[in-house]
Amino acid sequence: MKSNYSHHFFGILILLLHYLFPLIFFGNFIAEIHDNLQTGPVLNNIISKIYKGSFDSVNIFLSGEFKWYFLDRIFFPINLFNLILDAKSFYFFEEFLKKILAYWSFYIFAKKFFNNRSYCVLGALIFVSTVYMVSAPVAYGLPLMPYLLHLLTSKKNLKIKHYFVIFLIGLNTSIVHEYLALMLLIPLGYLLNDKKNKINILFKYFVIISISSLIVATPIFMSVLLEDLHREDFIKLSFVSYFFKSIRSALPGISWPATIFHVPKEFLYSILIFFGLFLKNKKALTIIFFIFFIFLIKTILGSNLTDMFFQNIFSFLKGFNFARIEKIYPLLFSILLILILLSLKSIYWKKIIITLAIISSISFQLMIPASEFGRLFLKNNLIEEDFLAIKKLIKERKFYNIFKINLNKQSFNNNDLAFRFESEQSFDNYYKFSQYEKIRKLVNGGRTMSVGLDPMIAAMNDIKVIDGYHNMYPMNYKKRFRKIIERELENNIKLKNYYDNWGNRVYAFYNDQNNLMLNFQHAKKLGADYVISKFPIKNSELKIVYYKRNNSSQIFLYRIL
Q1: Distance from first CA to last CA of the chain, Å, rounded?
Q2: Residue 311, class by beta-carbon neighbours within 10 Å (0-12 exposed, 13-18 middle, 19+ buried)?
Q3: What is this structure's pTM?
Q4: Domain limits at 239?
């Protein structure tokens, strides 16, 4: 019995590094901020309150104009765990569950096609490490793609229980983030299936996934039918611009997010493509053909060509990101990895690829906690003088002295997209529960606008807000909120395009904290009674109510006069 499971030990250990490393060094779990803490736990917290009977909880967002059907995952059955788990527990439960399901899912699929268990474990690790499973938007379609492919390539007819599992997965699938990738499993399943007479399985899969995904997507359809959404403002890049962006993002080491932790994966993908083109393996060539085909389709669909097509026909699809078909890449490259390893005769190159795959998997598991580990040494975001000082020390090979630099206390810049690039940190530290408890009492039911701070932090602390991060909300609200930041946008073309051509982040953007051009009176008209700020604000329209400073942070509360 031990021999049947011993090959999983190394794989599970690598998966646990994501949690063990920060637990050992920080005494807490570390979470990613971007598209994660900024949305997922906050929205799930509201969903949990709705499940418990507080149907007016959504009024906390956007001056009370946020509707329940803007919560696109409110009908996911997995959310029932919200009834027994608090926001923090549910976040880490979901994160770990997705990793485990992704690992198990790929291994189940791979062991049917390949007789090398070690390679199957390695492929599973690469899949887990590279499939993008952000807590908020992505549900269980992506991590369970390999299992669905396992069913689609079955040599036997599927039983009712299998179709029920497909239906259940569909009920926990995001139609905007995952559905297109799940549809690509149909041609992939056909190509990988030795018996081409299983069309009936593919057809039934299509029907069941579509119906179940459409059921839980009811809030999205309600939003489209009942509201003029801000997504109709979305403007995509031209075909040529998006094509070169796609090329650039596919090159080793410079894909988003551009960190050193992504470099091993990018080189691994490149090597797999190289060997796959020269090795005489039909299935490897099939996978590579599929990868290039998706790249081409993604480039076409991700550009403004789709906007032009849907401008007058089905205009509600204008804000839909068809380029998300690329989310099948991790599955394809994980399969390709095993095919290459089985086809290669050179032990030398096998060792290189295996080593690179292991490094890639470990780097992904350590990416978030290691970033926080580095931030402890760097203390703060850097200003330009700090970068110059560090560059000089590197040239002089005085690496240890880098950590002795007396770093400046202000950030490198205001960062046009400040909240997007904040460092990873613990769940509790990000939401600042202890600091916001006092603010919540002082505000006493009033609404706030945040400056220099993620407004979703206030919402997580049960403080009503006029701002926030939402992928669906009324167009009219976007235009009215714009009056608050109008002068700031006119002085920064990057910010202007970011808000006008996208606008999911309804934030009080600014250019210079010492020269704020925010319209606080219009914020008051929109419902804001108070301003929560990361820094002191000198403005006759604001009256200081509360402030707190400590060694690592500061926070100010102002009342709008």
Answers
A1: 72
A2: exposed
A3: 0.87
A4: 2-31+72-368
